[in-house]
Amino acid sequence: MHSVIERLEKMEHEYRRQILHAAFGMLVFAFPFLDVSTLLLLSFLIIIVLAYFPEYPVIAKFLYRKPEPGSREELTDMNDGVRSARNLAVSVFTMLLISQMLQFTPLDFPLYVIGGAIAISTFGSSAATFIRHRTRIHLNGAARRINGGGDQHLLPSSIVMLGIGIVSAFVAGFWIAGWGTLGVSREMVNMIFFLAVIGSITGALFESIPSKVDDNISVPLGAGMAMWLFHAFGYSVPPSEMFMALMFSLVLGYLAYRARIADLSALFSASLLGVLIIVFSDIFWFILLLTFFILGGAFTKYKYTYKESIGIAQSKDGVRSYENVFSNSMAALVLAILYGIYPQYSELIIFAYLGTVATATGDTLASEIGTTARSQPIMITTLKPVRAGVDGAVSVLGEVAALLGAMVIGVLPVLFGRVDGALTVIFITTAGGFLGTNVDSLLGATLQHRGMLSNSGVNLVATFAGAFISGILYLLLV
C-alpha cells in the first residue's frame, strides 16, 4: 500500500513539473511583443534564479519533491529538477544570443525558428514525458524487462513528442511570423511547416539517444540548429507533400524497428533522412538508400551465430543505431540536398549519389559475408594473412560480395527507368561502390588501426570517396 501511494505521489509531482515545463513554452507567444535583447535578459534572469535560489518555496514546490529533509532522495530530486529547468533556460539563452549576434551579419536566426524549437522542447517533451510516465506506471516495471532494458516502451512517447512537436512548432512559428502583418504568405506557411517537421524529428531523435547530456539542452539546441540550417537554404515544399514524405519514411522506419534491424534512434534517423531526401530529390532515391539498409540488416543476420562465436558479430544482435545510419548515409543526404538546390548539376549529383549508396552497400556485404569465408583473409596493405574481422582485412568472398552489392544499386535505377544508358550507369555505380569499399578497407588498415578514425568515421569518409569516384567517372565517360 505504501509503495502504491509513493508511486502516485511521484506521478503527481512529475505531472506538476511537466505542466510547469510546458508553461515555460508559453513564452514563445510573447516573442512578437519583445525584442531579442529583452528576451535575452528575461532568460538570463531565469537562469540566475534557478542557479541561486533553488530552494525558494515556489521553485521547490514545482521542481522537486521533499520526501524527508536531508535525505539523499531529496537532494537527487532537487538537483535533477532544478538542473533540467536551468538547462532549458540556458539553451533558450544560447539561441537568442546567436540570433542577437547575427544581426550584425548577413545571416539570420529568426525568432519564429527559436520559438518553434522552444515549443518542441516544452510542449512536445512534456507530452512525451506524460505518456512515458503513465506507460511505466501501468507496466509496473515490465518495460524495463523488455529486451533486457530495451526501448520499446519509449516508442509511444517518442511518437507523441513528434506529433505534438510538429503542431506546437507550427502554431508558434505561425504566431510569431504572422503577428503585426496582414497575413503569412503561402511560401512562409510552407517554410514554417517544413521546419516544424525537421525540428520535431530532430528533437525526437536527440531524446531517443542515450546520453549524459540533459535532454533540456540537447533537444532544443538540436532542433533549433537543424531548423536554422534548413531555414538558411530557403527551400521548402507544400505541407501536403511534407506530410506524405514524413508518413512514408516514418512507416518504413517503424517496420525496420519492428523487424529488429534498427533501434529507436535509428528509426528517427532514417525518418529524418527519408523526409529530407524525398523533399529535396525524389522518393526513389530514398527507396534506393532503403535497399542498402534492408540488405545490410538481412546479411547482418547471415550466419550470425558463427560470427558471434568468433567475436566479430555486429553488437546488439545486429540492431543498427543512429551512428550506423548517419555514418553510411550522410554523403547521400548531402548529395540529395545539393540535388534540390542545384538542379543544373542533377546528372552529376545522381551518379555521385549512386556511388555513395553502392559503397555503403558493398562495404556492409563485404563485412557481413566476407568474414564467413573459409579461406584466411589478408591485410589490404601488406597482403599478409590475418584473422577474420581485423580492420583492413579482405577476402575473395568479401570482394565478390562488395562487387555484387554495388552492382545491385546500379541495376535498380536502370530497371525502374530512372536513368539513361544502362551499361554506363551500372559500370560507374559498381566501380564507385567497389573502389569505395576498398577505400574503407584501406582506411581501416591505417587510420582506424592507429586510432585516428572510428569505424563510423571510416564509413563516413569511404562513402564520400565512393561518391567522388563515381562523380569523376561520370565526368570522364559521359
From TrEMBL:
User: Could you tell me where this protein is found in the cell?
Assistant: Membrane
Cite a GO CC annotation.
membrane
Query: Which positions, given as ranges, span the membrane?
Result: 18-34, 109-131, 154-176, 188-206, 218-236, 242-257, 388-416, 422-445, 457-477
Mind listing the UniProt keywords for this protein, alphabetically? Membrane, Transmembrane, Transmembrane helix
Main subcellular location of this protein, as a coarse class? membrane
Task: Provide the topology term for how it sits in the membrane.
Answer: Multi-pass membrane protein
Per the similarity annotation, which family is this?
Belongs to the TMEM19 family.
**PANTHER family tied to this protein:** TRANSMEMBRANE PROTEIN 19
Q: Return the protein name.
A: TIGR00297 family protein
